[in-house]
Amino acid sequence: MAMRRARMTIAYKGDQFHGFATNPGVDTVASTIEGALAQILQEEVKITPAGRTDAGVHAWGQIIGADLPDRVNLPVLMKQLNSLCGPSIAVREAVWTKPDFHARYTALWRSYRYTVLNTETPNPFMVDSAWHIMKPLKLRAMQLASDAVIGEHDFSAFCRKPKPADENDTFEHSMRRHVMNADWRDLGEGVLRFDIRANAFCHQMVRALVGTFIEIGLGKRPPSDMRGLIVSGDRAQAAPVAPPQGLILWEVGYPADCD
Q: Which residues are catalytically annotated?
């Protein structure tokens, strides 16, 4: 049977799953999609993501690749997958791509967003999509600290050390990453958003950065600490990771010839 490689853009609500990667005995994003594909196509299909998100982390622009029979009608398959996987998972786009396309290794960059609700009272409608911080945050201090993150650095102070042969670490055991953009914005009504784009991220890097930014915003650290932490490479000196519900894998970029 002739096979073709498909590329899909998917969104999902991470709090409904125990992470992205298949994990026996629990529901994950990958196992749900692969189970639906097996039901539709009557054969086993493995998917490859641009990155594996942890339990509770959401996605708007996750990319997956899969080899499918060339008889498949992708628009119809999208509707079938959304019917079986929705509403917690949605296939936003599905296209045929080059045979050598790899969702993870072909990617040029990934971008994440983290949302903080900085108000005295909680918002029930943002419980599963933002980190609620009651005490006022100094946004300007957080913005100043974000400048230190931009560029190529060893982010060991903000990364969970990978296990041997951990596929979640794109560059094996190296913690060097090139951050292209990092900034905090005030969206109004107490909503703050952190956007960061990099060639890749090591495990828990964004959440560890956000946790440290929040300590800076609360006045527990000066903005200059961020550069010092990067130089130190000591994970114990940085803040604990921020909770997962505020984090979204927003977008993944690829070379133009992959479109």
A: 54
